[in-house]
Structure to design on (193 residues):
């Protein structure tokens, strides 16, 4: 191989390596800018899971009082991730939502509330959920459990000042399909059985 061929080969190799390094830097920069992507979320499936959790906790509670009023799965928009979040510090994404379903019953005596909490606690522990929080005993009793894989949470509490037994079940942020309308979403409705 003569000197001219070696020079051309070195140049081609340098351009190839330089191009690969530039492409790698671009991919890394985009990853830093965008941050970790949110997982996909099917709002209808999420709503079914949350309504199932809410109904199960209600059934386990066996409260001696009235049933909770019908409710709906609420949505909240989620923030940008990565360095892009700094550019959108006061804005959330319009394609990423978290989901929450809440119900409550008022006028529950403390003894009934304490009995109502235990079946849900035992089931969540048995099913592998992780206890993440115990509510302040001065204000009432309760706990929060999180699912170790799905990221869903169940918050069950009784508040002493009002006698309110409250349950909140939630799912973390996920990217929803194009065209999802949180205000016109039939699957969001929940009526306790």
């Amino acid at each position: 191989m003569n000197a001219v061929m070696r020079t051309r080969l070195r140049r081609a190799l340098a351009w190839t390596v330089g191009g690969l390094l530039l492409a790698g830097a671009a991919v890394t920069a985009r990853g830093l800018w965008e941050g970790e992507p949110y997982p996909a979320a099917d709002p209808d499936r999420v709503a079914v899971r949350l309504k199932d959790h809410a109904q199960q906790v209600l059934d386990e509670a066996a409260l001696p009082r009235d049933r909770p009023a019908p409710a709906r799965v609420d949505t909240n928009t989620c923030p940008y991730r990565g360095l892009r979040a700094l550019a959108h510090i006061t804005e959330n994404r319009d394609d990423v939502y978290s989901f929450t379903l809440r119900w409550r019953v008022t006028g529950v005596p403390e003894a009934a509330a304490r009995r109502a909490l235990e079946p849900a606690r035992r089931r969540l522990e048995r099913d592998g959920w992780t206890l993440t929080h115990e509510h302040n005993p001065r204000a009432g009793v309760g706990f929060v459990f999180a699912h170790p894989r799905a990221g869903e949470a169940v918050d069950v509490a009784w508040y002493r000042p009002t006698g309110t037994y409250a349950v909140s079940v939630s799912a973390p942020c996920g990217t929803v399909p194009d065209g999802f309308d949180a205000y016109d979403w039939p699957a969001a409705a929940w009526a306790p059985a």
The radius of gyration is 25 Å. The mean pLDDT is 86. The beta strands are 71-72, 74-79, 92-105, 130-134, 140-146, 153-159, 164-175, 189-190.
